Amino acid sequence: MDATNRISASFRAGAARPPLTRALVEAVTALLASIATLLCVSAISPESGSGVLAVVLCLSLSRSQLDRDRRGRIEAFFVLPAVGLAAAGIGLLLLRFPIAGALVFTAGMFLSIWLRRFGPMARRVGSLIALPFVTLLTVPYMPPRHHGFVPPVLMPILIALLALFWVNMVHVLAQALRLLKPVTLQAAGHPAPPAESSLRPIASTRMAIQMALALAVAFAIGYVVFPRHWAWVVLTAFIVNSGNRGRLDVAHKSVQRVLGAAAGTIVAGLVSTHLDIDRHTMVMLMLAAVFLGMWLRPVSYGWWALFVTVVLALLQDFVGVPASHMLWSRLEEIAVGAVIGVAAAWFVLPVRSTSVLRRRIADALAALAAAMDRQQPTRTPDAFFTALHAVEHMAPAFRATRHVARYVRKDRPAEWIDVLLTCREPAGSLIEQGKVPANVYQALGHARRSMREPEAILPALQQLQASLRQACAE
Questions:
Q1: How far apart are CA 68 and CA 70, in angstroms?
Q2: Taking the CA atoms of the chain, what radius of gyration do you get in angstroms?
Q3: 30 vs 122, 164, 203, 315, 377, CA distance in Å?
Q4: Which of 263, 278, 288, 326 is at a distance of 20 to 30 A from 72, taking alpha carbons?
Q5: What is the model's pLDDT at position 14?
């Protein structure tokens, strides 16, 4: 009985923890690192842009998890300063040569997504490259007005290194307290490599092209139609297409983005109009909104959109542009950006979300098969849990369309996700036991073969679920 109930340390620390609890730990660590970095940067430079860059770099690094292994820390040491310099340079271009800045910005976003084809580390570096540039859309680059003892050209490098130091310190402490687990580039168990994509061009290239086109159109429309507040159009097109998991995911995210942004804009307008708050209080409100957005993001992307919009609106107040003066124009610009993002995902080399989901389920089943392989000297469920997490990311969009899909299609992707996720605990227990019955191997093989036929996927996954539960009960 003890062997049956024994689950790996990674399962206890990660998979067994409820999503909101995991998100709470991530949000607290990111917030603490951001506050520490912000205090250091504020003591060195009074410029508001420096503080914004510091917070965004901390959030980017925390989400990328690049600092949680030795190789990642070394790469972040070189990547973050380059990212800070690039952000400052592109900001200067957008200020003085807008068209050239838009071209370079668009090319950088294309590159950050295209890098995904080269594996997990390149994907994390790509994310690290992309996210800080969002600061340029929230608080446009402004030439330094106060020259401190650090030359302006070196400030982005210093800010990046401070962000790396504090994020690393906070994460090391959290790992020592067993609140976070170390992230490795190669999960244990040596899972089978994913199959070559049948799409031509492959999905990452398609999504990079979609992002580049959406940004190019957003810049063009923003410059022409909304010359004073073009950044909101570009920002929304970027957010809607970032983390693209297929066209359904983009459409779902765009709806949440618009609704969340509308609510966030109203909240920010009420705060700025009816509350007389000083700059220090405004900074605390922005940090609180960042924390709440990170914490509630697993519940719904709409919460993240709401609180990020509150932060961005308060930032505009912080730099001297009252949010109450731009409420309706901001909503209009957000809606236009969302339409641009959805149109690019649906009509330019579209990627079906169902195909992405099938690929991720196939990867999860391959990881499970590798973890249960009798030839493996040691078996852990870590790779399987990691693959399940990737599947879980796609659940909200499919669950939102569950009732509609029930009447218009025979395959039911939301049910695929629900059934596979219930396999997490029994599969983890069996892997730890090291004794997998023959019927589990048979059901697993049948489930992997069913990926070629969408109508066969749900029955095959249900059979796998039943065999795993039966094996654990014996």
A1: 7
A2: 23
A3: 22, 11, 31, 19, 37
A4: 288
A5: 46
Is residue 202 in a domain?
Answer: no
Q: How confident is the model at residue 37 (pLDDT cuts 50, 70, 90)?
A: very high
Does residue 275 lie in a domain region?
yes
Q: Report the pLDDT value the prediction gives residue 403, as an integer from 0 to 100.
A: 62
Q: Residue 368's domain spans which residues? A: 353-473
Does residue 380 sit within a domain? yes
Q: How many CB atoms lie within 10 A of CB 374?
A: 9
208 closest CA partner among 284, 110, 286, 324: 110
C-alpha distance from residue 291 to each of 64, 172, 311 (Å): 17, 20, 11
CA distance 444 to 463: 9
Output the six-digit token pair for 425.
Answer: 């605990």
> DSSP readout, 288-324?
HHHHHHHHHTTT-HHHHHHHHHHHHHHHHHHTT--GG
In a shared domain, residues 389 and 336: no
pTM confidence score: 0.76
Q: What number of CA atoms fall less than 13 Å from residue 374's CA on the CB side?
A: 6
Question: What band does 347 get if pLDDT is binned at 50, 70 and 90?
Answer: very high
